[in-house]
Amino acid sequence: MKIIIKTTNLKLNQALKNFIEEKINSLEKFVEIFETEKYFDSFYEKGKPRVEAWVEIGKETMHHKKGPYFLAECQMRFPKRSLRSTARAEDLKLAITEVKDELQGQLKQFKEKITAQTKRRARVLKKELKLSPQARFYRK
Q1: What is the per-residue pLDDT for 41?
Q2: What integer pLDDT is reported at residue 140 of this predicted model?
C-alpha cells in the first residue's frame, strides 16, 4: 500500500510521519485480502500499487487556540472503489486515530459486501447446476 502525505499550515516532522504511517499501515491487514482477490485483476496495471492512501493533515486556521482546529483526512483508493474519512479534533494525533478507526469500519463493511456477493453468486450457480432427481448415472 502506498501512502501519500500532504500537510496544510503545518510542518511535517519525522515523528508525525512515523505516527501516520503506523496508523495507516495498521489497516493493511484489511487491505491484503483485496490485493489477492480476483475482484481487482482486470483493473490492475503492472508496477502500480493496487491500494493508495492519500492522507491530508493540517490546521484549519492559524489564529484559533482552542476547539477542534486540527483536521485529518484520508482517502483510500482501490481500482473500483474509494473510501474517505474526515475528522476534526483538538489534537492532531487524536484526529488521525479517529480517521483510522472510521476507515477500519468502512473496510470491514466493504470486505463483508464483497464476500456476500461472492457467496450469493456461488449459491445461484449451484442452484442452476443442480441435476434433476430423475437423472441416472450408469457405470460401465
Answers
A1: 54
A2: 63
Whether the model clears a pTM of 0.85, i.e. scores above it, the answer is no
101 touches 57 (CB < 8 A):
no
**How many C-beta neighbours within 10 Å does residue 15 have?**
8
Model confidence at 21, in pLDDT bands (50, 70, 90)? very high
Q: How far apart are CA 104 and CA 138, in angstroms?
A: 54
pLDDT of residue 43: 53
Q: Is 77 helix (H, G, I), strand (E, B) or coil?
A: strand
Q: Which domains are present in the chain?
A: 2-129 (3.30.160.100)
Q: Show contacts of 29-38: CB within 8 Å, 24+ apart.
A: 30/104, 30/107, 30/108, 30/111, 31/1, 31/76, 31/107, 33/111, 34/78, 34/111, 34/114, 37/114
**How far is the first Cα of the chain from the last one, in angstroms, to the nearest whole number?**
56
Mean pLDDT, residues 59-65: 75
What CA dihedral angle connects 133, 138, 139 and 140, to 10 degrees? -170
Contact 83, 75 (CB under 8 A): yes
